[in-house]
Structure formats: structure tokens, C-alpha cells
Specification:
The strands form two sheets. Strands 2, 4, 5, 6, 9, 10 and 11 form a seven-stranded mixed β-sheet that branches. This protein has strands at about 5, 10-15, 20-25, 35-40, 45-50, 55-60, 70-75, 80-85, 90-100, 105, 110-115. A hairpin with a 4-residue loop joins strand 5 and strand 6 (about 55-60). It is mainly beta. About 0% of the residues lie in helices and about 55% in strands. The protein is globular.
């Protein structure tokens, strides 16, 4: 059974940092792209970042470039999203996702709240 579990959210002041973790199980982690999405209240879900470990590719939305980094620990089947210099507009629920054999899998969100 493919499962994704996001964690690491919390309350932080503007300019602070958080590291989100996405623990994956049920599939060979480094063969697939794992992405982070976020959804703020009243807004659509948007893509934040993703990583394809097998080819060493990463993607970042313009809004987070230079502030967020993404990495993976294949031994732990975990993807990390390091978020630095957080801004109030980063406040959202963050979800991790993978497309495994043509089906989308989503983990439960983890809430990030950035106070000004």
C-alpha cells in the first residue's frame, strides 16, 4: 500500500525556518517524483517543489526559489522541504504527493503558519 506522511509544520515568525518531512512507504522511493504542494484558506492548491531522485532533478515555484530547498534520503524513504526566510504568504497546509503507476497519492497535510 502506497502511503505518504507529511510532518514538520508549525507556527513560526516571519524570517524563520521549518523543515517538512514526507515519509513514503509501499513503493521504491527513488524511482518516482515526489512533490510538495500547498493550499492556503480560500485558495487553490499550488505546486511548491518536487524532486526526482533517480535523475537528480528538482523544481521550485518562483514564489519559493532561493528560500526553499528539497532533498531526499533514499535510505529513509523520506523527502525533506527546508523552508527558510518564511513569509506570511507561505502560510498554508502543505501536502506531499507522488504519481505512482498512473495514480496520484497524497499524504495528509501539515499546517505551516507564519506570523508577521
Amino acid at each position: 500500500d502506497v502511503q505518504l506522511q507529511a510532518s514538520g509544520g508549525g507556527l513560526v515568525q516571519a524570517g524563520g525556518s521549518l523543515r517538512l518531512s514526507c515519509a513514503a512507504s509501499g513503493f521504491t522511493f527513488d524511482d518516482y517524483t515526489v512533490g510538495w504542494f500547498r493550499q492556503a484558506p480560500g485558495k487553490e492548491r499550488e505546486g511548491v517543489s518536487c524532486i526526482s531522485s533517480s535523475v537528480g532533478r528538482t523544481y521550485f515555484a518562483d514564489s519559493v526559489k532561493g528560500r526553499f530547498t528539497i532533498s531526499s534520503d533514499n535510505a529513509k524513504n523520506t523527502v525533506y522541504l527546508q523552508m527558510n526566510n518564511l513569509k506570511p504568504e507561505d502560510t498554508a497546509s502543505y501536502f506531499c504527493n507522488t504519481d505512482y503507476r498512473g495514480r496520484d497519492y497524497w499524504g495528509r497535510g501539515t499546517l505551516v503558519t507564519v506570523s508577521s
